Task: inverse folding
């Protein structure tokens, strides 16, 4: 989608630190990490918010991407946090669905 920063990252028009990629999803490091590990998993197809995700196979692909990030970043045993911000109250800034995967240390309990 035109003017979507994450579509541009997926297309390679904006550089990113790639962590994982398959036919359906792309994962890369967040530019402003909130934890020692902070990656984003995004569908390659432009989906605006979680509200717009109605494809179970894409949900499955995102789960695969999350698990690959956890494995590649060495967080399977230590644990990690997964978050999706949806819409205004959820604090979603980039309007291309993305899953935050955070870890690399014990995270505090604040959830907003
Ligand atoms: P959200 O608030 O859930 O929409 O999160 C958007 C996230 O995208 C933030 O954590 C930003 O730091 C991150 N972000 C924005 N631009 C880039 C970029 N060019 N490369 C990597 N991460 C980005
Ligand atoms: Zn997009």
Result:
């Amino acid at each position: 989608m035109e003017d979507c920063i994450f579509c541009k990252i997926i297309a390679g028009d904006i550089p990113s630190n790639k962590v994982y990629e398959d036919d359906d999803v792309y994962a890369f490091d967040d530019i402003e990490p909130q934890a020692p590990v902070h990656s984003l998993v995004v569908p390659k197809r432009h989906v605006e918010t979680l509200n717009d995700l109605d494809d179970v196979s894409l949900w499955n692909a995102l789960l695969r991407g999350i698990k690959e990030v956890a494995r590649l970043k060495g967080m399977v045993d230590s644990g990690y946090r997964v978050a999706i911000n949806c819409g205004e109250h959820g604090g979603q800034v980039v309007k291309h669905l993305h899953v935050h995967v955070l870890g690399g240390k014990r995270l505090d309990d604040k959830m907003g």
